[in-house]
Amino acid sequence: MPVFAGRIPETARERLSKLKGNNTKAIAVVNYGNAQVADALVELVDILQENNFDVIAAASTISHHSIFDGVAIGRPDDEDIAKINEFAQNAIEKIENGGSLESSIPGNRPYIDYKQLPFIVSCDVNKCVFCLECVSVCPEKAIPDDDPADVDLDLCSRCTSCINICPENARAFTGEAFKAKKPAFESANAERKEPEFYF
Ligand SMILES: Cc1cc2nc3c(=O)[nH]c(=O)nc-3n(C[C@H](O)[C@H](O)[C@H](O)COP(=O)(O)O)c2cc1C
Ligand code: SF4
Ligand code: SF4
C-alpha cells in the first residue's frame, strides 16, 4: 500500500474495507517515499484486523518518491531488496510455525487528518494524442474522456498514475505550489531512511 500524506489512500481504504478476511493470514506492507510513514502502517493493520484478517507481520519499505523525483532516487536498491527478501523468508517461517503480529506498530490513533496536496495535474494539449490511457488508469475517474486536459481536481488524489502512463509525457505536476515546494521538500528528505519490519 503506498503512503499518501501519512495515511493510506482513501480509495484504497474504501476498497480494502470491503474485503472479508475470514481469518486469512495477511502481511501489511506500506511503501513510502523516504519522507514519512506517519499513521499509514497502523491504519493498514487496523483495517485488516477489523476485517478479520490474521496479520502475522508488517513492514514499511521505501521507494523513489513518486511526486518529488529528487527524493529516494534508485530506491529500492540492492540493500533494500536483501532486507525485504530476509523479511519474506522470516514471514514464510512464521506462517509455517503459526502466530500473529505481536510487535506494536508506530503511529497514532486517531490518525492524522488527510491533507490533499495542492498541486495541479496538467496536460499539455500540444503533446496529447487522445489515446485515453490516462482516463483508463485514473482510480478516481477524475479525467473526462472527451477532454483529458480537464482534470477534476476535487476528485484527483494526485496519485501520479496518469503522469506515469502517458506515452507522450504530456502530463505533469505544474503550478506555483509545486515549484515552490520541490526544493525544500527534497532537501528536508535527503537523508536515507531504512525499511522497518515487525513480527
Ligand atoms: C499523493 C501522494 C502522497 C504521498 N505522500 C507521501 C508521504 O506522506 N510520505 C512519503 O514518504 N511518501 C509519500 N508519497 C510517495 C509515495 O508513497 C511513494 O513514492 C510511492 O509509494 C511509490 O510507489 P509508486 O511508484 O507505486 O507510486 C506520496 C505520493 C503521492 C502520490
Ligand atoms: S493524478 Fe491523474 S490518475 Fe491520479 S487521480 Fe489525479 S487525474 Fe487521476
Ligand atoms: S495518456 Fe497522455 S496522450 Fe493519452 S490521452 Fe492522456 S494525456 Fe493524452
Task: Tell me about this structure.
With 199 residues, the protein is α+β, with helices and mostly antiparallel strands. It folds into 2 domains: 10-112, no CATH class; 120-184, Alpha-Beta Plaits. It has helices spanning 10-16, 40-50, 78-97, 133-137, 161-165, 176-188; strands at 25-32, 54-62, 120-123, 171-174, 196-198. Bound molecules: flavin mononucleotide and iron/sulfur cluster (SF4) (2 copies). Flavin mononucleotide binds at residues 2-6, 31-36, 63-67, 117, 157-160. Residues 119-143, 147-176 form the 4Fe-4S ferredoxin-type domain. Keywords: 4Fe-4S, Iron, Iron-sulfur, Metal-binding. This is 4Fe-4S ferredoxin iron-sulfur binding domain-containing protein. InterPro entries: 4Fe4S_Fe-S-bd, 4Fe4S_Fe_S_CS, Fe-S_Ferredoxin.
In brief, what are we looking at here?
The protein is 31% helix and 14% strand.
Helices, strands, pairings?
Blueprint (H helix, E strand, L loop, with lengths): L9 H7 L8 E8 L7 H11 L3 E9 L15 H20 L22 E4 L9 H5 L23 H5 L5 E4 L1 H13 L7 E3 L1
Parallel strand pairs: 1-2
Antiparallel strand pairs: 2-5, 3-4
The protein binds flavin mononucleotide and iron/sulfur cluster (2 copies).
One iron/sulfur cluster binds next to helix 4.
Keywords: 4Fe-4S, Iron, Iron-sulfur, Metal-binding
Protein name: 4Fe-4S ferredoxin iron-sulfur binding domain-containing protein
GO molecular function, one term: oxidoreductase activity
Major β-sheet annotation? 3 strands, mixed
In the predicted model, the low-confidence regions spanning at least 5 consecutive residues are: none
**Oligomerization:** single chain
What letter string, H or E per element, gives the SSE order? HEHEHEHHEHE
Morphology call: globular
Q: What's the Cα radius of gyration?
A: 19 Å
Mean pLDDT: 97
